[in-house]
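Good morning C.,

I know you're traveling, so I'll keep this short. The sequence:
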Amino acid sequence: MLAAGASLTLPALVRSQNRAALIEDVVAANHILYNQGIVDAFGHVSVRLSANRFLLSRSIAPAQVTAADIMEWDLDANPATADKRAGYRERFIHSEIFRARPEIMSVVHCHAASLIPFGITGVPMRPVYHNSSFIGEGVPVFEIRATAGETDMLVGTPELGRALARTLGNKPAALMRGHGAVIVGRSLEESVARSVYLEVNARVQAQAMAMGERITYLSDEEVKLRSGANEYSRAWELWKSQVTSRK
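The tokens, ready to paste straight into the viewer:
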């Protein structure tokens, strides 16, 4: 409800309400990813606010993110307002993927340990589980040395962000050799759910490979038939209720 004397127009009020709800969901996404073991003290998740703006927390551990920590950024990874708080060094992951992929609404970066072996061995991730059928679209590996030689492994410049975006291409995720992964989605729900099920698939695939028997992966046709069928709203609502009920 507007305070006395307030002069917000109805469209501005709607935008304000939508922004508040989006910020609430970004906070929930950070907590969900922590709760699901996808991020720890490190990692981050963003959501597109407009064609040239996105929301991403200031530099803080995901489990500690609150609404007050969410900042607005432009596609040069600069604060879009006068907010001078420190951002994540790897915010260029988000800005350059949003620039390269206008259909993408959300980006997750994580360091889940189960993903690391697939980025350092040459063993490709393949879909073994129906909820992670999107892996069948391809999960390339980003080799930072191919762009910048020896580095501290962090995507801390626009150039490295662009190189990562090129490796990602039109895929749902990319592994980062010796570092972690980036996962994208057409919604915040999708990027979070893909992050969770990418990690599940990595554990299950590794377990199956350790058995030493022939593995039956999802076929190309099964992947195709599952395309668009991964409706994650039920999972999102469950996960969100788990993190918000603790407040």
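Safe travels,
E.
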